[in-house]
């Protein structure tokens, strides 16, 4: 068989969050595409080679780095299901999604049994209950339903039938918060869709004291001429923030020779970028709008925007991380996007980028297209070329590391 080693420009990986009823993150569906422009060696068996590339990219790299301890969900076509020997045993949480067009044969059912014994969780994607698909249920732990495929009555009836089985029901393609509430009431366990990236608006809400301190601090961190003393004065207004910052700087990850007890010293040692990450995390974690499932997404977006700007060495690189963070911060704050822009009083460069204008706005659009697995839109961007795929993968690894550090700290 030919060489199937992976180059940084051979594939694109993105992920979409899956949340539970409390909107806590419980896993990701991985979106994958091998580049049409990728360099490939001569391969005797394209199907087998493709499966091994998929396995290497998503199981080896993905389970270790992309899932961040959560299950990762992968679409698997029938042609691969019929070759269970291509899938290595796993100790990480990997969900294999059986596609809706899979023909239910004795071979497929036997393969699912083998894959479960290797440690995989089996999900039935876009499932339709018929006499022929019914045998799949005993092999599944998740059943995913396309909520657009049924009327409300049909969907409610199907949910009640499937609740009789020991499976988790996943509602897919949820567009609005109203849809989420209706599907939650129906009995779904997990939820997936673009509704998670939209703000949950509560009229009349005002930021509490801790949130206001964090918003003030964030605005200060984006100023070019910000004095350390002013940052310190803002931080000490929130005792909880002061404690958490000192606890974080004294964690094992920094390994300073002596304990850091000064907020001024902590601010200097952490630096602006890490402080931005920490303040962003705290704003999301203190959000009353159950937006935590999107925090890793925002950290990935911010880092990808920054690394993309560094890759092209554009002069606006210093503001690129900020643009990524602010592009969805309104979700955590429970307010409309325009309202957030008014409160933060951003400099024109950042405000324009958040509206898709200028170099940073175009890069933000590229990163969002990547997030959503909109490969066609991504490849139409003038800032896209296969070499930047590595930027996206590395931003996921960085974001997960920061997310875990901040939660622990």
TrEMBL record:
Top-level division of the source organism's lineage: Bacteria
Annotated HDOD domain residues: 207-391
Residues covered by the EAL domain: 1-213
Pfam families: EAL (PF00563), HDOD (PF08668)
Entry-linked PANTHER family: CYCLIC DI-GMP PHOSPHODIESTERASE CDGJ, PTHR33525
Protein name: HDOD domain-containing protein
């Amino acid at each position: 068989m030919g060489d199937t080693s992976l180059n940084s420009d051979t594939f694109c990986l993105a992920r979409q969050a899956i949340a539970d009823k409390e909107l806590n993150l419980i896993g990701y569906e991985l979106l994958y595409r091998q580049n049409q422009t990728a360099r490939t060696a001569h391969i005797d068996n394209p199907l087998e080679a493709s499966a091994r590339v998929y396995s290497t990219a998503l199981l080896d790299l993905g389970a270790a780095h992309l899932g961040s301890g959560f299950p990762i969900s992968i679409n698997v076509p029938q042609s691969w299901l019929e070759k269970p020997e291509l899938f290595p045993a796993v100790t990480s949480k990997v969900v294999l999604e059986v596609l809706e067009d899979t023909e239910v044969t004795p071979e497929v059912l036997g393969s699912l049994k083998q894959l479960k014994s290797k440690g995989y969780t089996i999900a039935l994607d876009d499932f339709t209950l018929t006499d022929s698909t019914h045998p799949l249920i005993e092999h599944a732990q998740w059943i995913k339903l396309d909520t657009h495929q049924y009327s409300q009555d049909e969907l409610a009836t199907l949910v009640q039938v499937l609740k009789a089985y020991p499976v988790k029901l996943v509602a897919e393609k949820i567009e609005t918060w109203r849809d989420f509430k209706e599907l939650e009431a129906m009995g779904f366990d997990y939820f997936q869709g673009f509704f998670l990236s939209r703000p949950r608006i509560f009229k009349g809400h005002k930021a509490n004291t801790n949130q206001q301190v964090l918003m003030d601090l964030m605005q200060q961190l984006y100023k070019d001429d910000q004095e350390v003393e002013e940052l310190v004065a803002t931080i000490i207004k929130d005792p909880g923030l002061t404690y958490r910052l000192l606890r974080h700087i004294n964690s094992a990850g920094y390994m300073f020779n002596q304990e850091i007890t000064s907020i001024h010293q902590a601010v200097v040692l952490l630096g602006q970028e890490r402080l931005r990450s920490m303040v962003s995390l705290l704003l999301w974690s203190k959000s009353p709008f159950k937006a935590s499932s999107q925090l890793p997404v925002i950290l990935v977006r911010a880092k990808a925007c920054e690394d993309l700007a560094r890759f092209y060495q554009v002069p606006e690189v210093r503001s690129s991380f900020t643009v990524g963070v602010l592009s969805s911060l309104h979700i955590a704050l429970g307010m409309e996007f325009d309202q957030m822009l008014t409160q933060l009083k951003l400099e024109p460069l950042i405000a324009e980028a958040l509206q898709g204008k200028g170099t940073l706005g175009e890069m933000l659009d590229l990163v969002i297209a990547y997030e959503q697995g909109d490969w066609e839109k991504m490849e139409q961007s003038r800032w896209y070329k296969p070499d930047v795929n590595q930027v996206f993968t590395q931003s996921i690894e960085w974001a997960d590391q920061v997310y875990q550090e901040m939660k622990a700290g």
